[in-house]
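Lab notebook, design round three. We kept the backbone fixed and only want residue identities now. Task for the bench partner: fill in a sequence for the structure below.
Input structure tokens:
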């Protein structure tokens, strides 16, 4: 024992041996106590005989208000008294209150008696058999006004408000008594310290277990570390066999230290090594530690371990758990615990209240009513808390008649009228919009002799506020202030909204003054004011109100300025917002830049682009020159409104400055040039961006790059961007797959394109109609008709096939000469109700004409004429080509006439087909004249034109002229033969 050091007298005093958390642990650990005739965890027969005799001597009237401890202490003490210890260990209350009596015990200074002396103030938090009630601690730790305030709160809590009691007298009496108690307490601590020092020489390996337990109990109150050290010494000296008391004390220390892992191992050691039996006191100690700290998980774990060890919970167990679950709203755990409580046929009133409260908060009113019915089935006599939670449950769901019936039943059961019940009903009628009900309950409250409190007036204000009864709400608002109470934030908000709706600007100014007096932040006041006037559409009156109240405070605060300016901008009051920015009295360039950017973005989101431009023009030059985000946003706005020159000017200013452009800026500029129709400039911007190695495009910019390079017909750039996308490691989504397939179809190899398409489906993405059409065209041109048919059927099954899909398949079959399948797809297109486009007719005309199916050709031509489609140059060129091959010059002439009647002139392809037709018909001179006509109309002949002329000359045996044309073409650098 030489290694164990005891605390000094000063340490004992600092550790506050009368700590109420530790004291209540002792109560739960020992067994419990009796409240009136109810016993917490023990039968009345188990109380000491001397205690029962004292109970009889006190009398029936007084015992109703006293608590008796079923522990080895030799006195009884009411839990709400302020206790003190005299030199002879007398316990007397500092204030004379009714029904309070404390017995006197004379003791000596032995260690065991000193231990019992500490137990006199064990429980400053008592369990009344139904719920945990936090009461006042001993007055030894209170000084001056704090002590008096604590005493006043306790007096009010126990006896209610008593008129005629002078606060000054009560405060001075408690202050004087507190000084006496502190002095006497110091004397007691000195005596206890001497006892500990005397006991030090008497403790050794031969000491009894009782003596060691007494010393361990004292250490448990003074020093956790020393208590655990003594416990370990007792374990080493085999003094823990069947010593449940020592284990309980150690568990209490571990619970305060929140060392739950060690506590769990100590429980196993307690049963396995020391042969101790587990009971509810052991687990209650641990659960109580979790309850005080709000540790729901650990409390539940100890509870389930308790059940696994076949230890039956008592009322304290269920009370602590249900209160813990109620605070956190843990429904599942509460339902399980409540069901287990009823299974054990225990009736904890606070558990019923907790279940009703949880169900009410979660809106499960039907289940709350079920608990009320269960209370009747269990023959539970409700206490005040039970009545209140039931009234609240009915009021929350609007069943106010049932709530009033409960109130009447509560009063008939002998419970005095309670202000909380009436406040609950007032709140319920206010939410329901029942003015008569609110007024009736308030008058009933007064008739019962109750004095309205601040909650009453606040509820009246809120109730009339919801019903838009401004006069009544204003009267109760003034009455609340007259009684010396402060309105809460909800009252202020309600009054400002009412005054805004009823256009009482003077009242608004008065409410603002009250809010400032109560300590509300200016930003909070401003927010309430703006919301109220914004709802009524009278926001233009806010500047006048602010000028009369606290505008000078707003312009000094950054947050308030931001709120005010943003609200004005969002409601179209641009001049007022700019005035606020002009009047501001703070300087913070970074904050100002963010504010301007936020205002501009707000205008952009609302579609007020002109307001955004005005705000931008009002900015200072310093912000304009350096803020990349603002300039980038303005470029985007100029792009939206089509003012490309101004957007380009901002981009030029950025390039000339030293500001490093980021990826977003390049994206915005690229889209500006694309929308402006300047694809070359967009390509230049992209080239500039690619030179900067620190910029990596995002998904959206990559897609823009693909679209731009596709429209510019730059396949090499497309391949390069595709490889960068693969190397970037970005996640491919459905939009990216479709964009790559649509844009890179002509740049990538067919195998790579097909792999991408299959990969997209394997990853769970769906191809859009454009991607399907591109793949169909690719498969058709490559002659992969098996894949094309499979993809076509898939598009039809997924209802993605459109007119272009059918036209693409028809064109593929027509070019391949598969006229049967071409006609079949055409019929399916008609059956699907899809209008046949001109491209489909042209494909069929070309296919039938080239395969000399004149009858089908004429049928398609007739359908085209009967349809709403107007023939284009391609249609007429096909007809000229087909008729020319047949040598039908008259039909060719008719086609040319019809072409001119429609206001169309022959194009290069038309002239080439006409030259070829004239050559086949032997009209060489007309063929040569066509070339002259082309040049007269400004159409420059191409290689095909000269090939057709030479072919016409050769076909008609004009070889010399053909050679001349060939030589001339050679001199001009044009190939002379059509291979």
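Proposed sequence:
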């Amino acid at each position: 024992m030489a290694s164990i050091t005891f605390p000094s007298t000063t340490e004992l005093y600092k550790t506050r041996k009368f700590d109420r958390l530790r004291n209540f642990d002792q109560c739960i650990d020992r067994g419990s106590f009796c409240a009136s005739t109810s016993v917490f965890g023990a039968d009345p027969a188990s109380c000491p005989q001397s205690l029962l005799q004292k109970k009889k001597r006190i009398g029936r009237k007084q015992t109703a208000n006293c608590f008796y401890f079923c522990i080895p202490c030799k006195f009884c003490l009411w839990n709400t008294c302020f206790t003190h210890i005299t030199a002879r260990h007398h316990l007397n209350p500092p204030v004379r209150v009714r029904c309070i009596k404390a017995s006197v015990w004379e003791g000596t200074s032995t260690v065991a008696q000193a231990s019992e002396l500490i137990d006199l103030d064990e429980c400053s938090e008592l369990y009344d058999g139904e719920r945990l009630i936090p009461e006042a601690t001993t007055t030894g730790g209170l000084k001056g006004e704090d002590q008096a305030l604590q005493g006043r709160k306790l007096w009010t809590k126990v006896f209610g408000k008593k008129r005629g009691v002078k606060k000054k007298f009560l405060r001075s009496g408690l202050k004087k008594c507190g000084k006496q108690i502190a002095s006497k307490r110091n004397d007691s601590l000195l005596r206890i310290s001497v006892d500990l020092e005397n006991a030090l020489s008497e403790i050794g390996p031969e000491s009894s277990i009782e003596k060691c337990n007494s010393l361990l109990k004292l250490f448990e109150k003074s020093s956790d570390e020393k208590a655990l050290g003594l416990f370990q010494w007792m374990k080493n000296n085999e003094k823990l066999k069947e010593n449940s008391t020592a284990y309980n004390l150690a568990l209490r220390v571990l619970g305060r230290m929140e060392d739950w892992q060690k506590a769990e191992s100590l429980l196993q050691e307690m049963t396995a090594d020391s042969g101790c039996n587990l009971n509810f006191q052991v687990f209650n100690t641990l659960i109580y530690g979790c309850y005080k700290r709000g540790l729901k998980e650990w409390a539940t774990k100890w509870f389930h371990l308790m059940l696994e060890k076949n230890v039956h919970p008592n009322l304290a167990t269920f009370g602590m758990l249900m209160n813990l679950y109620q605070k956190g709203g843990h429904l599942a755990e509460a339902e399980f615990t409540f069901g287990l409580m009823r299974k054990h046929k225990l009736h904890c009133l606070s558990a019923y209240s907790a279940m009703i409260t949880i169900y009410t908060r979660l809106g499960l009113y039907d289940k709350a009513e079920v608990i009320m019915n269960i209370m009747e089935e269990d023959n539970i006599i409700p206490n005040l808390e039970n009545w209140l939670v039931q009234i609240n449950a009915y009021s929350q769901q609007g069943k106010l008649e049932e709530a009033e019936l409960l109130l009447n039943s509560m009063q008939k059961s002998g419970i005095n009228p309670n202000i909380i019940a009436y406040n609950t009903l007032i709140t319920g009628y206010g939410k329901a919009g029942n003015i008569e009900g609110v007024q009736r309950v308030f008058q009933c409250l007064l008739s019962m002799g109750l004095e309205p409190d601040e909650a009453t007036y606040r509820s009246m204000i809120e109730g009339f506020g919801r019903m838009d009864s401004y006069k009544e709400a204003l009267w109760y608002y003034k009455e609340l202030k007259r009684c010396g109470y402060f309105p809460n934030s909800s009252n202020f908000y309600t009054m400002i909204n009412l005054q805004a709706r009823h256009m009482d600007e003077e009242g608004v100014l008065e409410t603002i003054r009250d809010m400032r007096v109560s300590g509300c932040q200016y930003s909070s006041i401003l927010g309430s004011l703006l919301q109220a006037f914004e709802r009524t559409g009278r926001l233009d009156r806010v500047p006048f109100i602010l000028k009369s109240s606290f505008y000078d405070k707003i312009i000094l605060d950054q947050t308030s300025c931001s709120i005010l300016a943003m609200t004005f901008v969002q409601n179209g009051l641009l001049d007022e917002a700019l005035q606020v920015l002009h009047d501001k009295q703070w300087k913070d360039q970074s904050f100002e830049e963010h504010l301007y950017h936020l205002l501009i973005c707000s205008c952009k989101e609302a579609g007020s682009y002109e307001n955004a431009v005005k705000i931008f023009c009002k900015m200072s030059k310093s912000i304009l020159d350096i803020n990349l985000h603002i300039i980038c946003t303005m470029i985007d706005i100029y792009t939206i409104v089509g003012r490309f020159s101004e957007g380009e000017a901002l981009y030029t200013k950025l390039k000339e400055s030293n500001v490093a452009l980021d990826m977003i800026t390049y994206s915005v500029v690229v889209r500006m040039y694309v929308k402006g129709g300047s694809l070359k400039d967009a390509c230049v911007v992209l080239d500039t961006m690619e030179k900067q190695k620190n910029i990596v495009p995002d998904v959206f910019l990559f897609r823009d790059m693909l679209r731009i390079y596709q429209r510019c017909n730059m396949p090499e750039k497309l391949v390069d961007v595709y490889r960068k996308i693969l190397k970037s490691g970005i996640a491919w989504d459905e939009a990216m797959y479709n964009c790559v397939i649509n844009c890179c179809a002509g740049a990538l190899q067919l195998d790579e394109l097909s792999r991408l398409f299959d990969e997209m489906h394997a990853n769970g993405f769906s191809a859009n109609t454009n991607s399907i059409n591109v793949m169909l065209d690719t498969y058709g041109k490559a002659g992969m008709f098996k894949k094309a048919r499979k993809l076509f059927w898939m598009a039809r099954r997924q209802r993605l096939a459109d007119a272009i899909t059918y036209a693409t398949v028809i064109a593929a079959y027509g070019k391949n000469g598969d006229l049967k399948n071409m006609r079949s797809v055409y019929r399916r297109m008609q059956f699907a109700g899809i209008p046949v486009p001109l491209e489909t007719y042209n494909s069929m005309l070309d296919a039938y004409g080239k395969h000399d199916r004149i009858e089908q050709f004429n049928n398609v031509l007739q359908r085209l004429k009967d349809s709403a489609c107007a023939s284009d140059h391609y249609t007429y060129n096909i007809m000229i080509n087909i008729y020319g091959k047949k040598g039908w010059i008259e039909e060719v002439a008719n086609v040319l006439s019809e072409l001119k009647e429609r206001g169309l002139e022959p194009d290069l392809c038309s002239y080439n087909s006409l030259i070829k037709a004239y050559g086949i018909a032997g009209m060489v001179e007309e063929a040569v004249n066509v070339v002259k006509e082309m040049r007269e109309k400004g159409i420059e002949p191409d290689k095909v034109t000269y090939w057709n002329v030479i072919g016409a000359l050769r076909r008609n045996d004009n070889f010399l002229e053909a050679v001349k044309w060939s030589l001339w073409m050679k001199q001009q650098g044009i190939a002379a033969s059509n291979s």
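Keep this in mind before ordering anything: Confidence is low (pLDDT under 50) at residues 1-172.
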